[in-house]
Amino acid sequence: GSILASTNTSAPTLKIGDASGVPSRSFNLLRVENGGVVSNLNVWVGPLSQCDGSGVIVTSGGKVYGQMTVGYNNYSNSVSITGGNGVQSLWNCMNTTVGINAGPQAYSRHSLRIDGAGYDGSAVVTNATAVNVVPAGYSGIWCSLIVTNRGRLHASGLLNVGGIQAALPASNNFVLVTQGSKVFVTGLTVGVGNSNLVNVSGTDSLLSLGGGNLTIGSATRTGNQITIGPNAAVTNVGTLNVYGGNTLNLFGGALTGSALTMNPGVLIGLDVSNPGAMVFSGAATVDGTVFPTNFP
User: Fold this and answer.
1) What would the pLDDT profile of 104-135 be if each residue is shown by its tens digit?
2) How far apart are CA 28 and CA 46, in angstroms?
3) 101 closest CA partner among 184, 22, 45
4) Phi, psi of 6, rounded to the nearest 5 degrees
5) pLDDT tens digits along 67-116
6) Which DSSP string do the residues of 31-90 spell out, in sequence order?
7) Beta bridge partners of 177
8) Is 48 exposed, middle or buried (0-12, 13-18, 19+ CB in 10 A)?
C-alpha cells in the first residue's frame, strides 16, 4: 500500500510515537515493505520526550519520499533501510537534512542503518542536503550512522558526527562505512564534541568528500578519530585538518586530497604490515606522533 500526502512545499509531518501525555507513545513502528510507498511527508521518529524505542523499517523494495528526523530528547529511536536481491529499498530525502538526535539535550542511541544485504544499490538514502549524527548546536551520545553490505548514501552537503551544545558536548557518536558501501557527501566534521568515531573499512568501501574539508576534533575537543581499514578509501578531501589529541588511523586504506594540516599532539596510527597510502597534491603541514601498530 501507499501513504501519499499533499505535494505542496510545506509537507505535513508523520510522527512515529507521538501521543502527548499518553504512556504508550514509546515503541511504535512503521514498516514500508513489498513495494509500499510513503510520499511527500516529513517523517519524524520519536518527536517528543519519552517517545523512546520507536522506528521506521524500509525493506523489500519499500520507498519513502520526504525528510528524515530520528529522535528528540529521548532514547533509542531508529530508521533502517534494508535491500536485497532484485529490489531497491529507498529513502529519498527530497533535498532536506537528515537529523539523528535533533533535540538540544544529551539523549542517546538513535540510529540510521543502511544495509544493502550484499547487493549493490539495493538500499539507498539519497537527495539529502546534509547528514547530522547529532546536529551542530545539539548534544547526544552513542548516536550512529551505519552504511553496510554495499549500502549507499548520497548528500549534497556536510556529514557532521558529534555536534555540541556549550554545556553538553556530544560524545561517543559514530559512523561506520563497511563491506563495500559507499557514502558521497561534501565535507566531514568528526568531533565538535569528544570521542566520536568514523570507521571506513572493508574492500571497496568508500567515503568521498566531494572536495569538502575533513576536520577531526577542534582546539578544545579530543579523543575523536577516523580509521581507514584495508582496501577502503577516503577520497576527494579538500583540506584535512587534524587537531591535537585526536587520531588518524591509516590501516591499509587510502586517503587522498588537496591539503593537509596535522597540529601538534596528533596521533597517527599505521599498520606495520600494511600502512596504506596518504596522498595530497598541495601543501602539507605535519606535526604529530606516528605510532606503529597491528590492525585488529
Assistant:
1) 665 678 788 999 999 999 999 999 998 887 76
2) 9
3) 45
4) -55, 150
5) 888 877 777 878 899 999 999 999 999 999 888 776 666 567 878 899 99
6) EEETT-EEES-EEEES-STT--S-EEEEETT-EEES-EEE-SSSS--EEEEE-BTTB-EE
7) 147, 200
8) middle
